[in-house]
Amino acid sequence: MPTRTAVVASRIGLHARPASLVSLAAAGTGVPVLLEAHGRSVNAASILGILSLDVSHGDEVVVSADDPAAVDALIALLERDLTED
């Protein structure tokens, strides 16, 4: 399973709007995507799962999926400041 690590660029971390954008993007890939942080892994399509990870600006997260394009898309999103999107 392809796996990559990203440093979260959003100034507020993965809370509220950024978490929503990540979960929608993960759901839109059509494949299961896992997001891991702080030793926990959640379904990246679940906004509640993402929020439960309590990811802050500058934290590292690991994205895994069977589709490398899905991993790349989520990594690109996480490495942008989604606060203003």
UniProtKB/TrEMBL annotation:
SUPFAM superfamilies: HPr-like. InterPro entries: HPr, HPr-like, HPr-like_sf, PTS_HPr_His_P_site. NCBIfam families: PTS_HPr_family. Its main location: cytoplasm. It is found in: Cytoplasm. One of its GO terms (biological process) is phosphoenolpyruvate-dependent sugar phosphotransferase system. This is Phosphocarrier protein HPr. Keywords: Cytoplasm, Phosphotransferase system. Gene3D superfamilies: HPr-like. General (non sugar-specific) component of the phosphoenolpyruvate-dependent sugar phosphotransferase system (sugar PTS). This major carbohydrate active-transport system catalyzes the phosphorylation of incoming sugar substrates concomitantly with their translocation across the cell membrane. The phosphoryl group from phosphoenolpyruvate (PEP) is transferred to the phosphoryl carrier protein HPr by enzyme I. Phospho-HPr then transfers it to the PTS EIIA domain. The keyword Cytoplasm applies. Residues 1-85 form the HPr domain. GO terms for cellular component: cytoplasm. The keyword Cytoplasm applies. It comes from Pseudolysinimonas yzui.
